[in-house]
Amino acid sequence: MQENITFPDFNFAEGELLLINKPYQWTSFDVVGKIRNSLKPQKLKVGHAGTLDPLATGLLIICTGKLTKQIDTFQAEEKEYIGTLVLGATTPSYDMETEVDATFDISQITEEQIYAASEQFKGDISQYPPAHSAVKVNGERLYVKARLGEEVELKKRFVTVNEFEITKIALPEVDFRIVCSKGTYIRSLVSDFGKALNNGAYMSKLTRTRSGNFLLSNAYELPDLIAYLRNKREEAKANTEINEKA
Question: What positions does the domain Pseudouridine synthase II N-terminal occupy (predicted)?
C-alpha cells in the first residue's frame, strides 16, 4: 500500500460511492467481487455504474449499500475516454483480446484523411456492439456465443459522440480522446473509423478518464483500497476479541 493515502470513515451500509482505477485485464465484476469480499462479514449490496472491458483501464464507479439504488442514474452520465487505435489491421473483437485476422496497406493514408474521418463520427451516430461484448442476447452474453463460434444477429444502437479529438498520429498508431453518451462502444467506433478510411483498425489501449462529474484523477488504486479495508477488518476483529475477553 502506498504511503500518505488517507481514506474517509466509510459507511458502506448507508451507501458509499467509490471511484476506482480499474486494473488492466480485470473485469468490472472482478472489482465488485474483490470489494464485496473485503467487506465481509458484512453482507452488503455492491455494484458498478458502467462496465469497462477487461483490456480497458480507468474510472469505475462502485456503489455500496443503499446507494446501489442510484446506479442507473450514475450509469446514464456522459463518459470521456482516451485511447490508441492501430490502423492497417483488424481483429474479431475490435481490440487485442483476439488475434489479427486481416491486414491492410496504410502507406497512402494521410494525416488530413485521418482528421477528416474523425469528423464523420461526431454527433448522433449508429453502431453495432462488438460480437465479443457483454451485451445479452436471449439471456446470454455475446462474448460467450462468439467464443463458441456461434453466429449472432447484432442489433444497431444509436449513441451520441460529443467530441472526437485526434491527439497524436504516429502510424500505425493514432491516439484519440472521445466524449460520448452512455452505451457507446469505443471498440465499434474504432472499427468503423478504419472502414471510413477504406482500411482496418482495432483498439490497442483505452482508459476512461471521466464519468459525469467524477474524474479518474480522484480515483483510488484498487490494491490500496483493498489493503485498507482488510486492515480495518482485522482491527475490528481484534477489538471484538479483546472485548469478549474483558
Answer: 42-186
| Alpha-helical regions (H) of the chain | 28-38, 71-75, 111-119, 142-147, 186-196, 222-245
53 belongs to the catalytic site? yes
Q: Residue 89 in contact with residue 104, Cβ under 8 Å?
A: yes
484498487: which residue's cell?
222
Instruction: State the catalytic residue, choosing from 53, 72, 105, 124.
Output: 53
Answering whether pTM is above 0.70, one says yes
Task: Give the helix ranges, DSSP H, for 39-167.
Answer: 71-75, 111-119, 142-147
Alpha-carbon distance of 139 to 149, in angstroms, equals 17
pLDDT of residue 16: 95
- Among residues 236, 160, 243, 193, the alpha carbon closest in space to that of 83 is found at 193
